[in-house]
Each structure stands twice: as structure tokens, then as C-alpha cells.
Design goal:
389 residues, alpha+beta
């Protein structure tokens, strides 16, 4: 690898790591809040929380890696352009096409990593996340019971809790007990708590200060029983079939098996074929974003790093908007799975070639100026508003 290649890769690497960290953290915020609640309010061990984070992380990285490649490339080439280094390289006989080579190498490496995440790590991680959370719910029933929500964690029991003042303690309990279809019970209690027998793996919901309401069909009668304490033994031997693999938890081989089975049943298999295409289209997007980022960064030499970041966000939003449109059309069987998933890549391939040719010829690119102008207009208005305050 030549000195210029190493230099450009070193220029891309720091903003890539920073962008990857920021984007992943932003997308991960919702899960962080949920996992923090499990840690603090539900008493789940820190080790299990860390395992859940590791399992779910690949599903976020496959989205943030292409975004980070685009952002890092724009920022790197913008910096090179602002400092006049691109002009100096061109004066030395190095064209923009040659400068793209190290970007392509870096993008291919990240694309291979993303391909591994899509094909292996994400399906395994998503299923492991689902499985671990499910088993944790079985071991600690209070996780599956949330206040203000009808919970059906346990077979034939619908549990509603008005308030959870402390882990495994409930107030205002309402239960629809359908374990015996012939004699369904309606149970109302002032409060209750979870009692776990780790040795025998038994979970008991102990209710206090309530009443049991039962309709007796044989006598067409109604029975009401008031109680001080009432125990309901929760069945934790929930059928393992509930832990089923969704499309995102399947490998390519498993998706192909489902497609073959669906074909024999004469059902639509477009959504499964779309999932296979995603495992290739997103890694390809890494290469695409790198090639798009270089000319965008070079063209925004007067706009600075902040405008380059705004351009990266705009391009990313446009990419995923087109992706959402294609995904919708594919799920409705309006277009073939290939076009549904590869639509944004096809669009940005032509857009990237156009940008690269324009930047190499040093032709003015009005779109970059428009985006930068809008950014500076909004930022200036925001700064004026702060000064007035």
C-alpha cells in the first residue's frame, strides 16, 4: 500500500469510529432504556444485561456502519479539500479517481464485516437475545408483568396490574383464569407478590385481600369467594415453540428452506426473498457510501465539517427513505424482492457515478451548495435566537 493510500485511510479512520459510536448509541437508546429498567427495577443481573447488549448489537451495527462510512469519507475529504491537500495531490498528478482507491479498500473491508454480521452474527444474536430474554422471564416472572398492561406471559392467564410499587410486588391485581375452560375464574385482589422457589423451579403468585368470581355452567349459578390469601401456581413450562425464529433470526440456508416450503404451499415468499437480498445489499451499501462520500466531501470544501455532517445525514435519510418505499412495495408483492431491496443501491450507484465524474472534472455541484446553504441558514437563525435570549 502506497503512502497516499495509508494517509487517506488514516484520515478516514478517526471520524469513522466517532460516527459509528454516535450513530450506534443514538439507535441503541430505546434498548438502553429498556435494559436499564430491567437492571434497576426488575433486579436482573448485570451479566445478563451485558449479554443482551452483545446479542442485539449486530442488528444496530449493520445500519450504522454504512452511515459511518459515508460520514467519515465526507469529513475526511472535506478536511483535505479545505486544507488544499486535494489540490496539491492533483497538482502532483494524482486524480480523484486514484484517491478513491483507498476509500474503496476501506469500504470493502467494512462491507465484508457487515456481510458477516448480516449473514451470521445478526441472526444468531437476535435469536439468542429473544431466547435469553424469554428464559429470564420464565425464571423471574415479574419481568413479564408490567403495570397498566394486560400480560399473557403465562398460558391461559391474563394478568393486569394497576401498580408495581416494588419488584415482585403488585397492587390492584385483575386476573382472567382460563386454565379450566369449563369453569373460568375472574380474580380481583388488593395486592400480590411473586414467590420463587429456585430449588423446585416453581413460581407462585400470592394474592392478598381479594375475591374469586366463578360461573358454574352446570347449575347456571354464580359463585363468589372472598379470601385473605390465595396462591396461583404459575406454569413456567411454557411451550418452547413460542421461541420461534422470525425472518431476521434466520440464516440464508434457513430462509431458502422456508421459501421452498412456501412455494409448495403456493403462498407468497417475496418477504423471505427480500430478507436474503438484504444480506447482500447492505454490505454493498458500504462500498457505495464510500464512493459517494469522497466527491461530496471534495465538493463541500467551503462548507466546513459541520455542513459535511449535515450532508451525510441528508444522504442517509434519503437512502433509508427509498429503502422503506421499496420494502413496502415488496411486502405488498407489488415488485420483485430484488428490486424492492436493491432500489436504493441502484439509485445511488448512478448518483455516485455522477458525483464522481462531476468532482473529478471540478464541475460545480449545485446540490451540495444548496444543502450547505440550508444548513448555514438554519444554524444562523438558531444562533440569533440564542443570542436574543
Amino acid at each position: 500500500m502506497k503512502t497516499i493510500d495509508r494517509y487517506i485511510i488514516k484520515e478516514i479512520f478517526p471520524p469513522f469510529i466517532l460516527s459509528l459510536s454516535v450513530f450506534t448509541f443514538v439507535l441503541f437508546m430505546n434498548q438502553i432504556l429498556r435494559l436499564t429498567d430491567l437492571l434497576i427495577n426488575k433486579g436482573i443481573s448485570l451479566l445478563i444485561i451485558l449479554k443482551l447488549i452483545v446479542y442485539v448489537l449486530p442488528s444496530f451495527l449493520v445500519l450504522t456502519i454504512p452511515m459511518s462510512i459515508l460520514t467519515a469519507t465526507i469529513l475526511a475529504f472535506s478536511r483535505l479539500s479545505v486544507d488544499g491537500e486535494i489540490t496539491a495531490l492533483k497538482a502532483g498528478g494524482i486524480s480523484l479517481y486514484r484517491m478513491i482507491v483507498p476509500v474503496a479498500i476501506y469500504s470493502i473491508i467494512t462491507g465484508v464485516i457487515t456481510a458477516y454480521l448480516m449473514a451470521a452474527a445478526m441472526p444468531i444474536g437476535n435469536f439468542a437475545f429473544k431466547n435469553l430474554l424469554y428464559n429470564t422471564i420464565k425464571a423471574k416472572a415479574s419481568i413479564g408483568i408490567e403495570e397498566g398492561i394486560f400480560n399473557d406471559t403465562f398460558d391461559n392467564l391474563m394478568i393486569y396490574v394497576k401498580e408495581i410499587p416494588a419488584p415482585e410486588e403488585f397492587r390492584g391485581v385483575f386476573i382472567s383464569d382460563l386454565r379450566d375452560p369449563k369453569e373460568p375464574n375472574l380474580i380481583i385482589a388488593r395486592e400480590g407478590s411473586i414467590i420463587t422457589d429456585e430449588g423446585q423451579k416453581k413460581i407462585t403468585l400470592r394474592l392478598r385481600g381479594g375475591s374469586l368470581h366463578r360461573g358454574i355452567k352446570s347449575d347456571d349459578a354464580y359463585q363468589k369467594v372472598e379470601f385473605a390469601n390465595y396462591d396461583i401456581h404459575l406454569d413456567i413450562a411454557i411451550k418452547e415453540s413460542k421461541i420461534t425464529k422470525g425472518r431476521r433470526e434466520m440464516t440464508i440456508g434457513e430462509l431458502q428452506d422456508v421459501i421452498e416450503k412456501t412455494k409448495k404451499e403456493n403462498k407468497s415468499y417475496n418477504v423471505f426473498l427480500m430478507e436474503i437480498n438484504k444480506k447482500f445489499s447492505i454490505p454493498f451499501a458500504c462500498l457505495l457510501m464510500g464512493i459517494i462520500g469522497a466527491p461530496l466531501g471534495a465538493a463541500s470544501r467551503r462548507s466546513g465539517k459541520s455542513a459535511g455532517f449535515a450532508i451525510a445525514i441528508g444522504i442517509t435519510l434519503l437512502y433509508y427513505l427509498i429503502n422503506m418505499i421499496g420494502d413496502y412495495l415488496g411486502k405488498k408483492d407489488l415488485i420483485h424482492a430484488f428490486f424492492a431491496i436493491w432500489l436504493p443501491n441502484i439509485f445511488f450507484t448512478f448518483f455516485g457515478i455522477f458525483l464522481l465524474v462531476k468532482a473529478a472534472r471540478e464541475s460545480p455541484f449545485k446540490t451540495v451548495k444548496i444543502i450547505a446553504g440550508v444548513y448555514y441558514y438554519i444554524s444562523s437563525k438558531f444562533k440569533k435566537g440564542k443570542r436574543k435570549r
